[in-house]
Design brief:
Number of domains of chain A: 1
Distance between the termini of chain A: 26 Å
Number of strands of chain B: 2
Strand order of the largest sheet of chain B: 1-2
Radius of gyration of chain A: 21 Å
Strand content of chain A: under 5%
Helix content of chain B: over 70%
Low-confidence stretches of chain A: 1-12, 339-356
Largest sheet of chain A: 2 strands, antiparallel
Number of strands of chain A: 4
Structural class of chain B: mainly alpha
Radius of gyration of chain B: 20 Å
Strand content of chain B: under 5%
Oligomer: heterodimer
Largest interface: A-B, 55 and 58 residues
CATH topology of chain A: ABC transporter involved in vitamin B12 uptake, BtuC
CATH class of chain A: Mainly Alpha
Shape of chain B: globular
Chain lengths: 356, 328
């Protein structure tokens, strides 16, 4: 039996509890060691390219987009579900924000209202993300559609609407002030990195310091027990997917600002990447386990690997191959710890579980 | 009667009929043998994929890697045909492609059946790994000059003719592969212990194991079988298109899963029929090819398919929930 699945220790014996804490930290420590090892190896292999200020700065601009998406994926996975619609929602939110900018920014150019227009565009994007996430949550928790299919369907719809709006073309031409979000720096620290750091801290606080987080972990671990403990599983699921959608929209705003354009098929490779990061970071795809700290380490490890491979002149296809293999290897290593083979694959929906 | 009305198959058949009636009203040329044979031709590869995916869903899993398996097998088999100088031996192409598909399918099975990892994430990983391996180590150049055997296969027709108003129609021999896949899978599912074990495992893995089903062996069979079907579908696709494109097919998986799910197969396992799957495929092929005849721009394809997935999975799930609430 895996250490963290041990039933509450009988009074007087604190050892299982101690082991559980150690095991959780061992996981983080091992991930930290892997991340540091990748960093050291890449620095040794390409000291003139990798271990430079320019590279660090470039990496800090690259990873926040998919790191924010990974936060979204993590929240969905904590419920025992998955969110396959994040990419579609990210692009749809960015495109709607781009429409607002395109319609209002030229008139506001040169006046003080341009910041207001940008704020409005961001609000539109975030509202789109929240609405899309709400739709996901309602389909999963109230209609009882398995998360994979619900988010597959909504994801196709979000992408589809984005294609209908743009006819498949990129939307371009945003005010210069907008590009600060994706390309600017405050006191040498890239703005996208600051945005990711703020979101990561917020999500960590939400998960570890609020009743919402405690309930979410409990529902993900055992939906039946959570229900009998009086937790509103359906409401909790809806709110979690709403948050996941909102995070996807924020990733969309960052991506759109950095690319200075919005398009229906941006970032399609981020879906696998965000699942890979979540799994690498120790988020259990069956729900209930995983910390933001692990996720952040996984993001760094993958960014170091990705930049290093670029410097070693690996092709994109070779990287794709390595990401796939890495996902499988990490699953195998983690599976030794948190596999729950008694539960049928595919029946991950917590709300399905407890109604049957 | 009530069960007949609420079944997914009936719903999908009604949608298909309504779609055809509307299209025929807008454009009477829609109702012709040419349209029918074109749609069947376009449905061969998706249909073969869908049969495989249906079997995986029935067994309680999900597979998204089949398109990468097909692209890998198809491209490698074509390359081997050229390298070995057996360009006119179509049998070699089918055997090699099926064998490669089987191998890759068994790779999935090792992770899923033997190590017991979640099927969606495993097959997402193998999808990327297979495709990355193909493009890095096998090749990333189109083979436009396909071997003569494949050209001959693409030209061979079951029947061909001309309609009264001068339109050509023809049904390629390749459709026999779809027919074969349907017959073999139907036989396995409905007439063998193996098939009943697959359904039982999808319904409840634990219960199936308790009554003596070798769950692990069944999973190896299911993913291996899907691999073979994908390999064959890949080589059929390359033959019909007369080009072996390593970038092809990947990206089709969501449409195929949509077709299967519309046909009534459930992600929770234990449910799924051949008839439903074929109806689902028919609907998806209709949407992909004939939406434009209804005056709806093809940019709406994704929206329509996404909406149908939500409708096709939401209605039965909601009904099941209401029944459960009424029973409680």
């Amino acid at each position: 039996m895996p250490p963290h699945a041990v039933a509450p220790a009988p009074a007087g014996s604190r050892r299982p509890e101690l082991r559980r804490v150690l095991a959780a930290n061992a996981n983080l420590l091992r991930l930290l060691a892997i991340t540091v090892a990748i960093f050291v190896v890449m620095s040794l292999l390409r000291p003139e390219l990798f271990f430079t200020w320019g590279n660090f700065s470039s990496m800090a601009f690259q990873f926040p987009e998919f790191a924010i998406l990974s936060l979204a994926m993590m929240l969905a996975m904590l419920t025992g579900g998955i969110d396959l619609s994040v990419i579609g929602l990210m692009n749809l939110s960015a495109i709607l924000a781009a429409l607002v900018l395109g319609a209002l920014a030229p008139a506001a150019a040169g006046t003080g209202t341009v910041l207001g227009v940008i704020a409005l565009a961001i609000c539109v994007a975030v509202a789109t993300g929240a609405a899309g996430g709400l739709l996901n949550g309602l389909c999963i928790a109230h209609l009882g559609i398995p998360p994979i299919l619900a988010t597959l369907g909504t994801g196709l719809m979000f992408t589809g609407i984005a294609i209908v709006i743009t006819n498949g073309y990129a939307l371009l031409g945003f005010p210069a002030e907008f590009s600060v979000i994706g390309n600017g720096s405050i006191a040498w620290i890239p703005v996208p990195l600051l945005i990711f750091a703020a979101l990561a801290v917020l999500v960590a606080l939400l998960l570890n310091r609020t009743a919402f987080g405690l309930r979410l972990y409990l529902m993900g671990t055992n939906p039946m027990a959570a229900r009998f403990a009086g937790i509103d599983n359906a409401g909790l699921t809806v709110r979690t997917y709403l948050l996941s959608g909102t995070l996807a929209a924020i990733a969309g705003v960052v991506l759109m600002s950095r690319a200075n354009s919005a398009k229906a098929d941006y970032g399609t490779s981020y879906l696998l990447l965000s699942i890979l990061i979540a799994v690498l970071g120790g988020i259990n795809p069956y729900g209930g386990f995983g910390r933001v700290g692990g996720l952040v380490l996984a993001v760094l490890a993958l960014q170091f690997l990705s930049s290093g491979f670029n410097m070693l002149q690996f092709s994109n296809f070779a990287k794709e191959f390595i990401w796939g293999v890495l996902l499988l290897v990490v699953m195998v290593v983690n599976g030794m710890k948190f596999g729950r083979p008694a539960r049928p694959a595919g029946a991950e929906s917590p709300t399905n579980q407890n109604r049957e | 009667m009530r069960s007949l009305l609420t079944r997914n198959e009936t719903l999908v058949a009604l949608i298909i009929l309504a779609f055809c009636a509307m299209t025929a009203a807008v454009d009477p040329r829609f109702l012709s043998v040419t349209t029918l044979t074109d749609l069947i031709r376009n449905g061969i590869v998706i249909g073969m994929f869908a049969i495989g995916v249906m079997l995986v869903l029935v067994s309680g899993g999900i597979d998204v890697s089949f398109t990468a398996v097909a692209a890998f097998s198809m491209y490698s088999a074509t390359k081997l045909m050229v390298a070995w100088g057996v360009g006119d031996q179509m049998l070699v192409a089918f055997l090699v492609s099926a064998l490669l598909g089987l191998t890759l399918g068994l790779v999935n099975a090792v992770f899923i059946g033997w190590l017991g990892l979640p099927t969606l994430i495993v097959t997402l990983g193998t999808l990327t790994a297979f495709r990355g391996f193909l493009l890095t180590f096998v090749g990333s150049q189109l083979i436009t000059n396909v071997p003569p055997g494949m050209r001959a296969f693409s030209r061979s027709m079951l029947f061909r003719g001309t309609t009264a108003d001068g339109a050509f129609f023809a049904l390629p021999t390749a459709v026999l592969f779809l027919v074969g896949a349907v017959l073999v899978t139907w036989f396995i599912l409905n007439r063998t212990m193996l098939g009943r074990s697959i359904v039982a495992m999808g319904g409840s893995r634990e219960a199936a194991a308790r009554v003596g089903v070798n769950v692990r062996a069944i999973q190896f069979f299911v993913y291996g079988y899907v691999g073979v079907l994908s390999g064959l579908a890949g080589i059929v696709h390359a033959s019909l298109a007369r080009v072996a494109n390593p970038f092809d097919l990947v990206g089709l998986e969501l449409s195929v899963i949509a077709a299967v799910v519309l046909g009534g197969a459930r992600l929770t396992g234990g449910h799924g029929t051949i008839t439903g799957t074929l109806l689902g495929v028919a609907l998806i092929v209709l949407i992909n090819n004939s939406l434009i005849m209804l005056g709806i721009p093809s940019t709406w394809q994704n929206v329509v398919i996404g909406f149908l997935i939500l409708l096709g999975t939401g209605v039965p799930a909601w009904q099941a929930r209401r029944r459960a609430a009424a029973a409680a």
